[in-house]
Structure formats: C-alpha cells, structure tokens
UniProtKB/TrEMBL annotation:
This is Acyl-CoA dehydrogenase. Residues 454-556 form the Acyl-CoA dehydrogenase-like C-terminal domain. The keyword DNA damage does not apply. The keyword Oxidoreductase applies. Residues 245-406 form the Acyl-CoA dehydrogenase/oxidase C-terminal domain. Signal peptide: none annotated. Belongs to the acyl-CoA dehydrogenase family. Residues 24-136 form the Acyl-CoA dehydrogenase/oxidase N-terminal domain. It holds the Pfam family Acyl-CoA_dh_1. Its cofactor is FAD.
Length: 584
C-alpha cells in the first residue's frame, strides 16, 4: 500500500495509480444509471426543490435507494451493496449534476451514513443501516455550532450521563446542518462532562430535538439547511458511536472522506458547466460568427478542460488509493485501525478538496462570462451552477484550513520516518550550488517531467528552510505555509497528469494527443505558480546576500524554454468544440 504523501518523495509508476481509463464495464453501467436517474427524475423537479418542496426530495431519495444509489458503501449484510470505492466515486461524480439535490445525496451517503458504516458497532449497524440504504430514513452530520466552525473540537454541546447510567442528556445547538429539515438520524458531536469529545447517534424522534427554519442560502437552495437544537435530549448509552472521548477519530476522518468526495462532485459539476457553455456559445452568433469560434473563447475552453483533467486525475488517483486500502476490509475493524487507514491519505483528501473546488469556481466563473448578459439571468442553468459552486470552498473545512493542514502533516510524517522529507531537504540543500539544469530530450512529456522534478526539489528546499528557521513556531507563519501547500498541490496535480497520460499511452499504444495537450498546458501554468510561490516565500524568509543566493539557485531550478501554449490551447479546444463537451 502506498504511503500518503509519497507522491512528493517517490517516483510512482503509472501502473501504480488508478485513472478513469481503468473503469470497468460495471463502473460504466453504474455511471450511466446514475446519470439517467439525475436527468429523468431529479432535474425535472429541481425548480420545485429550489423552492424548498422537500417532500419531493424525500421521494427522490427513496427512488435513489431503490436503484442502489444510497447503499454502495453499506455492506450487504446490512442491506447495502458493499461496492468498491471506485463505484462509489462514480456515483458521486455523476450525481453532482443534480445541483442542491447532489448535496442532499452526498451528505446522506457520506458524512451522514459513513460514521455508522465505518465506526458503528454491530447493533448500531443492524438498527440504522438498512433504512439508510433504502432512503426510508435520511442521515445528517451535526458538528458545526454558532460559535464553532473550523475549530471543530471546541464544541459547546454537552452530554451528561444520568444517575441511572442509561442515557446521556444532550444539550446544545448546531448550525447550518445539511439535510436537517428532512433528516431522521443525526450524528451529533458533544463533550461528555465538558471534556470528552464524543459522537452520538441521535434520532429526530427523541424528545427535545427541534429543527429551526430553512436557511435562506446563496446557493444549493434545493438542499435542506437548518439549525438543530438539543434540549436535555435523552440519548441511550448504546447510541454512543465509537468510544467516549474518541469522537475526534470519527469527526476528522469522516471529514477526510467528505473532502475527497467533494472533489468528485466538483469534477462532475465542472464538466457539466463546460458542456452547457460549449452548447450555448456554439449557437450564440456575434459579428456573423458563433462565439465558440473566437480564439479567446477557444483559449477559455482549453484552459478549463486542462484544469478539469488535472483535478480528475488527482481525485481518481486518490479513489484508487482508498479503494486499495479499504475494499474488502472486515466489517468489524477496530476503531483506531479504521481511523489510521483513512488518515493515511489526509494530505491527498485535502488537496482534492482544495484543487477541485477552485477549478469548479474558475470554470463556472468563465462559463458565466461566456454566456455574457444571459449569464446573469436566472433563466439559464449556469446562474444556479455559479451560485451553487461557492459553498465548496467552505464545506468540509475551508480551503485555507485545509492548506494549513498540509505542511504540519508532512512534518509529522517525516518525524515518524514515514516520509524521507528531511533527508531529501538536506540532500537538495547540499547539491543546490553544484546543480546544473538539463534540457529535456525529445521524448513525450520530457519537459513536463523536468518541471515536476524541479518543483519537487524546490519544495524540499523550502520545507527544510522553513522548519530550520521557524522550528516549532511554524504555525505562526500561515502565509508561507499556504505558499508551500500551493506548491505541493501543483506537484500532486502535475504528477497525476503525467502518470495518467503515460498510462493511457501505454494502454492504447498511441500518442493520446488530447491528454498530452492538457498535461502540457496544466504543467506549464502550474510551474509558473510554483515560481511565484517560491519567490514570495524566499523574499519573506531571507534578505541581503542570503536572498540573492537563494534566488540564483531558484533561477537554476526554474530555467526552461516555454512551449507555445496559445497554439496548444487552440489545438485542444478544436477537439473540445467538435465533441461538444469535456473530451479526453
């Protein structure tokens, strides 16, 4: 099993990663079934759900349950399908076209149900999972509070054991809880005796549970979001999820899975926005020409598709890692072991969330622009997609919080000996003066591999310098931690693009021109970001001769002859226009 974060320190081979080209016939069938359900059953009712007619939502969730679209992660013995993680990933991506309904679906099958699937005991699974698998009951995840957001473990909701030792009395308020208006079961986090962070399974039917009014949100209006209050709610002791005082193992690792799944949804939504926009611009005539033919339109198509390709490559690579680690696990895996398995890929999950959500925001923003004035009119789907996209950079921990997780996590893994980052930093520092840049050869992707290799060396240098200079006070240097996280994000995406394209060429025994173009475009633009982030970081950490020396070294690592991206984008966009959608 690959170590989390090893993409930064090892040369992973293309055979070792999962890509969308590896989908089986069963995966393709699941994708088609999910897409058909969304197109024929969900989208015709989206306007009604946008107006909070959530009886329709509940009906559609039961229909999804009948098709098995709620139970892919639930073992067969509890009424589910127990599918592999790739199948679940495909469902999440295909469902993303359904606007706010996809949030309802995603919260139910993800952060709502998975705590019980992964951390519940046999009795809890037998009691709750069959109804969650069919959609007879809807799940919700209640963590956020009015005064508690990113600092999730400081919740104020309390749980006190009664004198008889039979029930916990739960008191507190949760805010902005997805599915809360239609949910039957809540996974609630509270502190036992004000100290021991613990997860509970709470039924809406329990006395003292009350749900507030529907929030008036900017987007995802077709999903239910309310406050939930708990007033001395008697929760049976057998509804403690996991162990008292170990709720953090559930909360943080379920959020890891949620971040990865959010990335899948962002990919699907990005593809749909691009598809709708190509269709619109192909019919919109200006100056006697469809605006889809204008060079600047073509440039936007190619840029969007290249970044979608990069995000898709990273997220499905992570799906492969989770599939390898989790498929076939016994149903009674010990809580600590399960948490460790999921936590192994905390860096990849955070990067998926950051990158895919920001790609989606870039895509919908450009798509609104290409719609012109109509992009500001509610009659067009792109308006809703623009509004709906914005929450993704806030959901499941803000993108800022996720970026700040990455450098400390890498440092911890290095201290434990799980990643050789300290050794690589020392080796790179030792060789930096004598380092001589080499020109790429004529082999496909040679330059992209060089940009990736040099980006890694830059990250090692910065990582070593930051730890040496700030030691245990690194958390006070948030700006440069974010810079390093951005470089690591670029490395993960560049590496995933290159490996996917190489694997595809090896599999098909042909050049795979479109994938090559996407990889060239993304890698060159990402490398420019690496240069900017590294320069900014060095200028903050150093001064005088030290800075001048460091910048001269950086210049050696960043020397390359740029490719003509204008020509590459025109070529890539021609195929996109012909296909009428995201095309690989």
């Amino acid at each position: 099993m690959q170590k989390g974060g090893s993409f930064l320190t090892e040369q992973v081979t293309e055979e070792a990663i999962f890509t969308p080209e590896d989908f089986t016939e069963e995966h393709q069938m699941i994708a088609e079934m999910t897409s058909e359900f969304v197109q024929k059953r969900v989208l015709p009712h989206l306007a009604e759900m946008e107006n909070h007619q959530f009886t329709i939502t509940k009906q559609l969730m039961e229909e999804a349950g009948e098709l098995g679209l709620l139970s892919s992660d639930i073992p067969e013995i509890y009424g589910g399908l127990g599918l592999d993680k790739i199948s679940t990933a495909v469902i999440s991506e295909m469902m993303s076209v359904a606007g706010g309904f996809s949030v309802t679906h995603g919260a139910h099958i993800g952060i709502g149900s998975l705590p019980i699937v992964l951390f519940g005991n046999k009795a809890q699974k037998e009691k709750y999972l069959p109804d969650l698998a069919t959609g007879k009951k809807i799940a919700s995840y209640a963590l956020t509070e009015p005064t508690v957001g990113s600092d999730a473990l400081s919740v104020k909701t309390t749980a006190v054991l009664n004198k008889e030792g039979t029930h916990y009395l739960l008191t507190g308020e949760k805010q902005w809880i997805t599915n809360s208006g239609i949910a039957d079961i809540f996974v609630v986090y509270a502190k036992v005796n004000q100290h021991h962070f613990t997860a509970f399974i709470v039924e809406k039917a329990f006395s003292g549970v009350s749900v507030g009014k529907e929030e008036n949100k900017l987007g995802i209006k077709s999903s239910s979001t309310c406050a939930v209050r708990f007033d001395q709610v008697e929760v049976p002791v057998e509804n403690v999820l996991g162990e008292v005082g170990r709720g953090h193992l559930i909360a943080l690792n379920i959020l890891n899975i949620g971040r990865y799944k959010l990335g899948l949804g962002a990919i699907g939504a990005s593809k749909e926005a691009l598809k709708k926009t190509i269709a619109y611009t192909d019919k919109r005539i200006q100056f006697s020409t469809p605006i889809s033919r204008f060079p600047l339109t073509l440039e936007k198509y190619a840029t969007m598709a290249s970044y979608i390709y990069a995000a898709e490559s990273t997220v499905y690579r992570t799906a492969g890692l989770l599939s390898e680690a989790m498929d076939g696990l016994a149903d009674d895996v010990e809580m600590k072991k399960m948490a460790k398995i999921i936590n192994e890929y905390v860096i990849e999950c955070s990067l998926n969330k950051i990158f895919a959500s920001e790609v989606l925001d870039m895509v919908v923003d450009e798509c609104v622009q290409l719609h012109g004035g109509n992009g500001f009119m509610e009659d067009y789907d792109i308006v809703r997609m623009y509004r709906d996209s914005r929450i993704n950079r806030i959901f499941e921990g803000t993108n800022e919080i996720n970026r700040l997780l990455i450098p400390p996590t890498l440092a911890k893994k290095s201290l434990k000996g799980e990643l050789p980052l300290f050794a690589l930093a020392a080796m790179t520092e030792k060789e930096m003066i004598s380092f001589l840049p080499e020109d790429p050869d004529e082999m496909p992707l040679s330059q992209e591999k060089m940009l990736l290799s040099n980006s890694k060396k830059i990250s090692y240098l910065l990582f070593g310098m930051m730890l040496k200079k700030y030691k245990d006070k690194l958390e006070e240097q948030q700006e440069i931690m974010v810079n390093l996280a951005n470089i690591i994000n670029a490395i993960f995406a560049m590496d995933s693009c290159i490996l996917r394209t190489e694997k595809s060429m090896e599999k098909s025994k042909k050049e795979e021109k479109q994938k090559m173009l996407y990889t060239e475009i993304y890698c060159q633009e990402a490398f420019q970001q690496v240069i900017t982030e590294a320069t900014d970081t060095l200028a903050y950490m150093l001064s005088g001769d030290e800075l001048r020396l460091a910048l001269s070294v950086l210049k050696k690592y960043t020397r390359y002859t740029p490719k003509a991206l204008i020509a590459s984008k025109r070529e890539a966009a021609t195929s996109l226009l012909k296909a009428g959608e995201y095309y690989v």
